[in-house]
Amino acid sequence: MAEALILGALVGDAVSKLSDAIIHVMKTTSQFKSKLTQLQETVTRIKSIVDEIQKHNQVLDRPNQETELFIAQLKSAQDLVLKCEHIKWNFYKRYRQSLKLDDLNASMLRFFQIDVQLQEARDVKEVLVVVKDVQNRMDRSSGGWASSVPLLKGNVIGFDDRVRDLKVEVFKDWDVDDSVVVVVSAAGGCGKTTLVTKFCDDPQVQGKFRKHIYFATISNTPNLKVVVRNLLQKNQGGQQPDFTSDEDAIQQWGSFLGEHKSEVLLVLDDVWDASIVMAFKFKSPGYKILVTSRSTFTQFRTYELHLLNHQDATNLFRYSAFSEGRNECNIPDDLVHKLVKCCKRHPLALSVIGGLLKGTHMAKWQFMLNKLSEGFGQKSVLDLDEDMRLRLATSLDVFKEGSEIKECYLDLGLFPEDQKIAATTLMDIWISLYKHDEKGSATLNNLFELSSKNLATLLPIRKDSLAIANYCDENAVMQHDMMRMLAINISSQEPLEHRKRLIINANDQNIRELPQTINARLFSISTDEAFSFKWNDIRAPKVEVLVLNFMSKIYSFPQFMQNMESLTVLVVTNYGYYFSDLHNFPAPQYLSSLTSIRLEHVSISSISASILGLVNLQRLSLIMCKVGNAFDETNLKIPNKFPSLLELDIDSCDDFVTFPTMLCNLVRLKKLSITNCHELSSLSEGFGNLTNLEVLRLVSCSNLKSLPETMSNLQKLSVVDLSHCLHVCNLPTHIDELGSLRTIHTRGCTGLHELPVSVKDLCPLEVICDEETSLLWSHLKGVKVQVIEEDRFSTFLKIVPREMHYN
Fold it and tell me: Where is the RPW8 domain (predicted)?
């Protein structure tokens, strides 16, 4: 108290001296009168605010930091004002002094508008916390609150907009639905509990539910009797209610709601099973249930909690890394932004890494950035903090150890971050590893499951994709960066020679550390464009899946591929800017077990002979590849090309102009998919030799004008997809001879103006089309027409994720 009185006297003295100086100078010179008048007004305004804060500090027994800062400001201002007296006619000096006065006034205003008001707001918040705590105690003693909402920890950043959006969801249809359930869904560590806690603390929510907000943490193995007991006991004068069973406990909760005439908000935090929510769901006016879960429950409204935007992520990181937000070590902003990027905008990672760097000097920051940098072979944030890794790993507790779905989640770590993973690729892998069906239904089920648990994200797909014979062609998935890090971290717990999945972000050092014999079933190697190290002579006799990710114009396959006698699936992806020329592809005799190859953004001419000689290859996918003359029969002297090939997928290959005659001899081929090949103009007459073909997809081939008449030979063809083939103007004349045809897609076939007469004999037939092309089919008997309206994810000009350039 004495200190506060002394400081108060010092403030008054400093203000008086500055005011006297301003008045004195204005009397002796007229050069700076307007500037000094502004300064006088600013000082007067600030003093009244500081006086109020000084009173609050006396009550709160808080050090008078603001007053001390204000006194320092006043003394500096006094010195600057007195200098004005000695500047008379020197124009340059007057100009410079005038600028200094402007800066002084702006500085004082900033002090008033930012520092002082922030400190005042802090004090008000602390008083509110005290008042709220007292109110909570009073409510509990009177039986008002059943279960206290936890207090927020620290400064909550980036949640104001989220609280606003969540209020819209909870208050929506307030008078229509008797029992609204909203699920806040996100992966572990994203701030679900923080959001609902801040939601309960919102004044509008407080005003709506008053003291009738009930909060219960559920977790993985809830005891409903204990949960309901904690909810009800404070409403029964502190007496613990008695239940004979879980059903009895829930029933008593329902009875309590029936007797309760006010609005009630029940918050169920960390729910693992939707049945728990259903147990608490009763029809009662004004009764709302707010849930947090790592899973997405489709039967309830869902609020998906996304990662922070860059600005909020940066603010949270600064709050965690700097004391009271002050950058005392002068860490460059560029270094801060790079570390924020390494943390993937994930709240838990930002808080942990920021906390590890708090109070350290720039050398430690740079060392941390080097560890976490996006270069290949570096560590992840999970390698630096065990507690964070364990907290994220709880997201997997919903799966049994060794379960197939958990294994599928771990398999996603084979692919680079922020990249789409085709469902067909996963299907090939999971057919090999887990004996999935070839139609992809098991693959899709697993992807839906992973998506519902927020362990992966299913990307938007065509609206009619489910009608494509249950194939995975139109599906893709991406893995959240932190969840990918977790998958890699879990897969890397065992020694290199014993890992089931060996995931290598290659640099010279970690290649040297590879054991001579690898026992993994899945092997992923990622290299950047600077990688040039020669691979060791490694044996990998158990590897069934090999994923090669690289970023170079020339890529040489590792020579140890010749030792992979068990290899069944090969995925080769160039993530660089230019097409990549491939070299050193193993001779066919070394890859006799290979059944599936996916090549993306590469030139295949140099390896086509080797691929064509793979006698057991069943599926080939060419994605955004440079095909060239790879299938020119005059250049290939191989007697039996693709003798076992069942599926051929060609997508976004811009130099694929015509369907080669050589490929018309694939007598075992069951499925042919050519999509987004806008230069494809014709299919050879030999197309009719594909007599075992069951599914034909010619999607978004905008330059294709007609289908060969020999298609009528394809007696096993059951599905034809011509979606967005703009210039196809006719179907085969004898289309009625396709006795197995059951489904045809004609969405976006704007050039198709009439049908062959024989189409009337195709019965039964399902046609999937848009409103315009439906007019061609609607009059036909025995034809079921399904109209799918256009959507923005499926136009004939498919957006390719990277710009392609030919060398």
Answer: 1-150
